[in-house]
Amino acid sequence: MSTPHSVSAEEYLPRDTADVVRTVRDSRSRSEQLTVRGGELYEEGFDLPAQPTVVSLRRMDQVLDINLGKRTVRVQAGAKLSEVDRRLGAHGLGLPVIGDHRDITAGGFASVGGVSTASHKHGMFIDQVVDLEYVDNDGRIGTCGRGHHTERFHRILCAGGRAGIITALTLDVIDIDKDHTWLSTNADRFLDFDLFVEHAYSEISRPGSSVLQVGRWVDTAPLKVARPVGTGHVQLGTVRFGQWSSLHPTAPNRALRARREVGSRARKSLGAIASAAGGRAGTPVRNAAAGAVMFAPKIQTLRDAEYLADTALSSSERGPAYRVGVFAPLSSYGSVFYRMHDLFSAHRERTGCFTVISAMTYGVRSRYLRAEATARGLAADDYGLITFTCRLRPAAMPSELLRDIVSGIDEICRSENAMRYESGE
Ligand SMILES: Cc1cc2nc3c(=O)[nH]c(=O)nc-3n(C[C@H](O)[C@H](O)[C@H](O)COP(=O)(O)OP(=O)(O)OC[C@H]3O[C@@H](n4cnc5c(N)ncnc54)[C@H](O)[C@@H]3O)c2cc1C
């Protein structure tokens, strides 16, 4: 390959916008299909072509400018948000919405939309994008933003790399000291799904002073003993439970700070063990690590709380799974939640294709989503994001079942004015 920055036949590593332009034009002249990556990780759930030619922006990772007056930061698209946030911290500033792990890049997050447990308050990551620079699929540089070329701006945000490569972004930041903002967790636990959904709805509608919020529901497959007992297999029943967590500002005393240290060390070790514990034998450890997120410490800093999933859950949630996310308008939140739950439970019962079914939910008050709803002829509303993760057995889902599920979700969205959370397909 002629581009000096390619490290293999399949990967380009541009250092600046001019490199990106050359890369796009070179591959175009060779009729190569380019796949964009923010960093090194391949995210589970993306369909990659069999042999993709990848352009990774991981060397375009600079913070270009912090504007204290305007409360904005300008970054290259490959900058990791955790690093940007750390740099902002030195000025008493921070990013209002960051992803749940430390390797997420600004361009990658803007290309999927970006929601977090702070979205009930601050919206989506793309709500914080003031403007951006990009290279289109013909290799031309352009800029767009909230105030200019707005249509193009909306087309590129959330497009999953298909509408061009984002090379730099300007982001809104807020005044916040994440290392000294202490949060206290109020956790409500539920064994009843109806009560869980009711509580989630009421917290999402009226979040009060909560800085972060998240609800999780877990529904294990019916447990069966391995050997036949009497005439058949004994069914031990399904374990179902949920938790709603709201994190509010607090002033901690010394004892609570010490408790937080111990709690966070224990969860980190559990996460490390879970990531090492493979196969069937590792399942209890991985489940325990997932549980550790639900039983988070009473007191923690905002920075710790934002990455809680990174320390335990991400390493515990391995294995093939079907995931789907839906933005449910608050006016039909409960109905969407029940219908999605029923859809997956019914498929599990009928085909046995899923084992554990889990759901995560929180509020999303987003300018972008309201504009998107209006553009689709729907009433603009506030939303609850509801994501379902269904563990697969066996590893692959038969295509006719996938079709059934996708059309079931589409029908729920159509009839409830909900929107799928996806990267622009
Ligand atoms: C639909 C979807 C939604 C997700 N939402 C969330 C979420 O809300 N919160 C969360 O914590 N995690 C979310 N994830 C996981 C999320 O993708 C990753 O955590 C994060 O986006 C990965 O960032 P990355 O920089 O590694 O990007 P990658 O995984 O490399 O890329 C993500 C997507 O963005 C495109 N892309 C990457 N860089 C650029 C660029 N510079 N210009 C144009 N396109 C680019 C890629 O082609 C790909 O489609 C989501 C995943 C998917 C598939």
TrEMBL record:
Coiled coil: none annotated. Residues 13-144 form the FAD linked oxidase N-terminal domain. Pfam families: FAD_binding_4. This is FAD linked oxidase N-terminal domain-containing protein. It comes from Nocardia callitridis.
